[in-house]
Specification:
The complex is a heterodimer. Chain A is mainly beta. Chain A contains no helices and 30 strands. Classes of the chains: A mainly beta, B alpha+beta. Chains A and B meet through strand 6 of A and helix 1 of B.
Chain lengths: ~375, ~100
């Protein structure tokens, strides 16, 4: 490894933060698209200089940007996301029918194998795919037109498809998560889908163990063991050992099992990270202490990671796409806050430092490990 | 062929790579909000979807159209724009809502 590149999406532009392999000195480049809401940026694992970026706001709607030089220059690609198939309404907050309306791309997931193939998770929840680098988008409509689609309802952030996981061993297997519908798996490249929610329990539902309606905030997978999944749900940290067919709770003695992010160690499939948030009504860490929690045994025991992180009077949130892990040895962990800080650890979470402190509200953080 | 002056919000000028506060677009036939925006989007395709919906062509909620000191946002898009706009004396203005933080 010679360099890491951290892609930060914020409420007022995108920032690219770089360092050499030591990850001790950082350079902030930006804002790109200053003043605009940049929801998510992510690079292709096939060619890391190919980066997709989602700009989305109330004024001008969705714009999709693409870079082929690692974020130095950008071109605009297609922003037309047209729903296909039947359009039976989903549910609104009060349970009344509501038509599907495209609002924004929450998350881009570039293909593991082809630089021009990229998936987009959008609000209202649907999955789109481009095979030409974003020049055209086609809905994988089997998800949204699933027989349960008329039961899906938005969470506070909207009815959003925010998590897309691609199985490195099986190109036909895709996982998605939707707030607040739940989690879904396709085993045929996105044509058909099944809910994978057995074992989830949500007290806010009339039927707490219903198949549909769980507010899944994030799912993480380690490429060495893609049948093991970790989930940060609205409340509860969960694990599945069979690709989502069944889930069990691993919240253990976390100070709160509410939160948004969950991420995996780069090299150890048993090491997982979460960042507890006090409650769904108080979107800040318990006791005003910013603590990442790490489990080295797949969720049996959790340890707080605090060195270098504020341990008093911290009242910001960390949103679901705002934590990531680089592939260096030892791996680095990164997360951004709604207060505009980006924190990094270059030693698996043992020690932390702020690599940016006064950015706009951070929506997303992704990292690229460059040769 | 009429040359129509169009004023765009700063972010749309940046997106389209337009320098200065105005751009001129050539409109064949009737000059209306619809035909002016058709011509604008043909010349600057990156603006498609940012002012009006791709399919329905409905104006986005945070956008308004002004001409000759009048808010014409709620006029039919096919309605003729004032002669001063059609003759290039006044611009057709695409205005973003004044809000945000």
């Amino acid at each position: 490894m010679s360099k890491v590149r951290v892609l930060v999406g914020t409420a007022k532009g995108a920032f690219i933060i770089t360092s050499d392999a030591k990850r001790q000195k950082w350079n902030i480049d930006g804002p790109h698209f200053g003043g605009l809401e940049m929801y998510h940026l992510k690079g292709s694992p096939v060619n890391p200089d190919r980066i997709y970026a989602s700009q989305a706001g109330d004024w001008f709607g969705q714009v999709v940007h693409r870079s082929d030089d690692g974020g130095k220059t950008w071109e605009t690609v297609n922003n037309e996301f047209t729903y296909e198939g039947k359009t039976e309404p989903h549910q609104w907050y009060d349970g009344t029918p509501h038509p599907w309306e495209f609002k924004r791309v929450w998350h881009f997931e570039p293909s593991l194998h082809d630089v021009d193939t990229v998936y987009a998770g959008v609000e209202d929840a649907a999955l789109f795919k481009s095979t030409d680098g974003g020049q055209t988008w086609k809905e994988l409509a089997g998800l949204r037109t699933h027989e349960t689609g008329n039961q899906w309802a938005p969470g506070a952030g909207g009815l959003c498809l925010h998590t897309i996981l691609l199985d490195p061993n099986d190109p036909d297997r895709i996982f998605t998560a939707i707030s607040a519908a739940g989690a879904f798996r396709s085993d045929d490249g996105g044509e058909t889908w099944k809910p994978i929610t057995e074992g989830l329990h949500s007290d806010f539902l009339p039927e707490p163990e219903a198949e549909i309606g769980h507010c899944v905030h994030r799912i993480a997978m380690h490429p060495a063991n893609p049948n093991v999944l970790y989930m940060q749900k609205h409340w509860d940290v969960m694990r599945s050992d069979n690709a989502g067919d069944e889930w069990y709770e691993i919240s253990g003695d976390l100070p709160s099992d509410f939160g948004f992010v969950v991420d995996m160690h780069a090299h150890d499939p048993n090491t997982v990270y979460v960042l507890p948030i006090k409650s769904d009504g108080e979107h800040y860490p318990p006791e005003g202490k910013l603590r990442v929690y790490r489990s080295r045994d797949g969720g049996k025991a959790w340890e707080p990671l605090t060195k270098g992180l504020p341990q008093e009077n911290f009242y910001n949130n960390v949103l679901r796409d705002a934590m990531c892990v680089d592939k260096a040895e030892p791996c680095g962990i990164y997360f951004g806050t709604t207060g505009g800080q980006v924190y990094a650890s270059n030693d698996e979470g043992d020690n932390w430092t702020a690599i940016a402190e006064n950015l706009p509200r951070v929506f997303s953080v992704e990292v690229q490990t460059l040769e | 062929m009429a040359m129509i002056r169009v004023k765009l919000p700063q972010h749309l000028r940046t997106l389209a790579g337009i320098e200065g506060s105005e751009v001129e677009v050539a409109v064949e036939g009737a000059v209306s909000a619809a035909t002016v925006l058709d011509a604008l989007e043909a010349e600057y395709p990156m603006l498609k979807g940012t002012i009006r919906d791709h399919g329905s062509k409905q104006r986005r909620a945070y956008i308004r159209y002004f001409a000759c000191q009048e808010d014409i946002s709620h006029d039919a898009p096919e309605e003729a724009l004032p002669a001063a706009v059609a003759k290039g004396r006044e611009p057709f203005m695409v205005v973003g809502a004044i809000s945000g933080g």
